[in-house]
Amino acid sequence: MELNTQHIKDLYAIEQTRFEQTHQKSKAKWEAGRKNFLYGGPSHWMRRWVGGWPAYISKDSDNGYGVKLTDIDGNTYVDFCLGDSGGMYGHGHPKVVEAMVRQASIASTMMLPNEDAEWVGAELERRFGLPYWTFTTSATDANRACIRLARMVTGRKKVLVFSGCYHGTVEEAHVELNENGDVQMRNGIYHNDFPHAELSAVVEFNDIPALEAALRTGDVACVLAEPMMTNFGMIEPITGFHDALRQLTRETGTLLIIDETHTFSNGYGGYTAEHGLEPDFFVVGKSIAGGIPAAVFGATQSVAERIWQALPKVPPTVRQSAHAGFGGTLAGNALTVSVMKTVLSEVLTKENFAQMVALASELAQGVKDTIAAHGLPWHVMQVGARVEILFSPDAPRNAPDVRAGRNGDLDTLLHLYLLNRGVLITPFHNMMLMSPGTTSEDVKKHHTAFAQFAAEVTAK
Ligand code: PMP
What we know:
Elements: H1 5-22, H2 24-33, E1 68-70, E2 76-79, H3 94-106, H4 116-128, E3 132-136, H5 139-154, E4 158-162, E5 175-177, E6 183-185, H6 196-199, E7 200-203, H7 208-216, E8 220-225, H8 241-251, E9 255-259, H9 270-275, E10 281-285, E11 295-299, H10 301-310, H11 334-347, H12 350-374, E12 379-383, E13 386-390, H13 399-404, H14 408-420, E14 423-424, E15 431-433, H15 440-457
Parallel strand pairs: 2-14, 4-7, 4-8, 8-9, 9-10
Antiparallel strand pairs: 1-2, 3-11, 5-6, 10-11, 12-13, 13-15
Bound molecules: 4'-deoxy-4'-aminopyridoxal-5'-phosphate (PMP).
Residues 84, 138-140, 166-168, 226, 231, 259, 261-262, 285-286 line the site of 4'-deoxy-4'-aminopyridoxal-5'-phosphate.
């Protein structure tokens, strides 16, 4: 089924007018924000919501626990974006709120731990398998720390990433391969005079021969990878990819960092636990501390021993002990740790993940039914509690497949169309995420809006 491109543009114009009419107060706030914010809002990427400005969420609205939001124009939404995973615990969980208030009323940050740390450390090992953990204030920071440690213990300098990846603002990962297989900066990002040719290696995901060639050079300190790619369209590993990745990294003395900041949505122990991966370092961030900026990274016994050799555990009486070169004053503060305990023990539990995955299946099935009803050459992917719609008939194997299947106008229209019908999806891709507070009724709202979308785009 061929879509009429002019019709898509016409529909977009209608939706844009509708958005303007229903988001006037947000527009005024955004315009006022230009006075004091470099790009209009507290973070530069907030300008990237379709419609031209973001909906400002009302401070007075109280929708209870779940994924409902109300903006200052009175529009209500079901939130499947969930802060691009940061809100996967659901908004306003009473126990999370209670943990925040309880610890904040004692002290949020002190440079001293509180007694919840012991439980959290043990729980991280139970879930993800690695014994030694460190807290940071973001997943970016956690990735940077792992890279630093990997370089320190291997004495090598390169970091290998997969084309189309995103691991936060990690300089080494700002590269991708273009159509000719040449390395270039991703999304036109400024090179910052960073010596990418010297410090980064990049290959296509699922390309085992290219991975092997890059690792056999012997100058790669670590591979930094999501277990399946989530930031460039969802790309699943082909059968045998993870075995090859682990075998080749071991054979070449390269450390493997698995970044589960998004794929934690796979379930209780992330993709790693479900698929029996054996990373040297493990990173997870975003959702684990109830919206307080936080991430953790874990190291295996053997990697930890290499770290202690390079950076010995000296007693505090040795005043000139070496600085680790990573950290963050607020990292692992009592507020973070206590809220993390509540999120891990009461919210992102095995039982709740089961419910989230079931709802994701419900959402994916609704999308599949609509696609089939209209004979559309589209595709839906589900990994755990995460679902993505791709405007191509088949699952992509790598970044070029994703590029080939892209349809910018249709993408933008889908986002705006859903937004205008009270359904929020991640602004940078077509991804939808469930939380323990998401309900079947929320999913039905998506079903209805998506079915309407499919009917309208195929009407002419
Ligand atoms: N790793 C992955 C896989 C991510 O998707 C992201 C952010 N989208 C990050 C790391 C960085 O997270 P943060 O912005 O919280 O540092």
